[in-house]
Design a protein that fits this description.
Layout: E1 3-7, E2 10-12, E3 18-25, E4 34-39, E5 46-51, E6 57-59, E7 67-72, E8 77-82, E9 91-97, E10 100-101, E11 105-109
Parallel strand pairs: 2-11
Antiparallel strand pairs: 1-3, 3-8, 4-5, 4-9, 5-6, 7-8, 9-10, 9-11
Length: 111
């Protein structure tokens, strides 16, 4: 059974950084496609970033140049490094693999 557990969210000031983690069990990340999504209050869940088994990556326009997705195969964990955070990045961030979702981690960007 696949389980995804996110962590690393919190409150950060505009311009700050956070690194989100998604620990996976039941799958081997280096062989799989993983994604990060986010959902802001009152809005639909939206794609943020993805990483493929060949380490190729893709980003939403809102994330390009500021966010970096990566994996640590030894820890079977996927990360989302978020820099230059803006108030509009405030959302619950979710890790995804196919039909499997984590519980989400809250990111709040505010002064």
């Amino acid at each position: 059974q696949v389980q995804l557990v996110e962590s690393g969210g919190g409150l950060v000031q505009p311009g700050g950084s956070l690194r989100l983690s998604c620990a996976a069990s039941g799958i081997i990340l280096r062989f799989n496609y993983m994604e990060w999504y986010r959902q802001a209050p009152g809005k639909q869940r939206e794609f943020v970033a993805s990483i493929n088994s060949d380490a190729s990556t893709n980003y939403a326009d809102s994330a390009k140049g500021r966010f970096t997705i990566s994996t640590d195969n030894a820890k079977n964990t996927v990360y989302l490094q978020m820099d230059s955070l803006k108030p509009e990045d405030t959302a619950v961030y979710y890790c995804n693999h196919l039909t499997y979702w984590g519980q989400g981690t809250q990111v709040t960007v505010s002064s």
